[in-house]
Amino acid sequence: MKRNRFIIGVAAILILIFGSLLFVFQVRQSQVAVVTTFGKITGAPVTEPGARFRWPWPIQNVYKLDQRIQNFEGKFEEAQLADQNILMMMVYVGWRIEDPGLFYNGFPSGNVSDAEKHLADVVQTAKNEVIGQASLSDLISADEKKMKFTQIESNILVRVQERVKSQKYGIEIKFLQIKKLGLPESVTKTVFERMASERQVVIVKIQSDGAADASRTRADADSKAAQILNAADAESLKIRGDGEAKAASYLKEFRKNPELAVFNMKLTALEQMLKEKTTLILDQSTPPLDLLIKGQSVSTNLESVKK
Fold it and tell me: Quick check: 139 pLDDT over 70?
């Protein structure tokens, strides 16, 4: 008897478990559920987390969709630029399910991979259209000012968003960025040579600007040096003129008494010679040593001095 009660109890529990699996479904915080009755959507999507009642299959089916942002990467493939160059490019996209009802109508399986396959085609088309209007220097250049990397990303994103919205798949594109760029081996050498040429142009410009600055600096220095030399020449001419004027005034005085002037000059010369501690052997008749000779010449000069 007890055994029968135990078996009945276990059976009841199993019936409750299987019944809950058939008649109840659970929605998580990050999910949204779409309920279909005989293949058609019933009511609004379930966005609040918790347990909900349902009719068992095949009457009703529940499709749980992830509301979080999904990321996927495109293929690393070639794209032709406006200047006929070939560039390898890969982009990655962030998207989410904005309208669960439209998403289910577009992808009845509710499978995210099916949606990403469709998005990959949309992204590839938009990417090729935008890249086809750009040149290689817009993406790869030694001069950052010439690059339009951010603008190209923005243009691709806008085109993808417009097309996805017009297709009404209930998908929202949150972001799009270029993840990888590459060059085919056939054009790598040409690109490097072009980059080196652009860098050489920058070097030549810097050198030219430096030479121009050096030339201006030298010209300023030469101008200032010329001004200083001119000022020095003018000052020396003034001093020379003053000296010649004074010499002229002294010459007038010397002309009044030439012998006195000669005598004074000899005394001055003799004084300068005697200041030096040097032994000189000279003829005593050599001026101004002739002043030291006793005799008529000295007395004569003294008498002239007294006069």
Answer: yes
Q: Are residues 7 and 76 in the same domain?
A: no
Q: Which two tokens stand for residue 83?
A: 């200047």
Tens digits of residue pLDDT in 82-101: 888 888 889 989 999 888 88
Interhelix angle 258-275/296-306, nearest 10 degrees: 120
Q: How many CB atoms lie within 10 A of CB 184?
A: 12
Nearby residues of 112 by Cβ (< 8 Å), 6 or more positions away: 66, 70
Give tens-digit pLDDT for 285-299.
666 566 655 444 444
The verdict on pTM exceeding 0.70 is: no
Among 124, 159, 183, where does a domain finish? Answer: 183
Determine the straight-line distance between the first and last CA of the chain, rounded to whole angstroms: 177
Give 126's Cβ-side CA count (13 Å radius).
26
Domain end call among 66, 100, 121: 66
Rounded CA Rg of the chain: 55
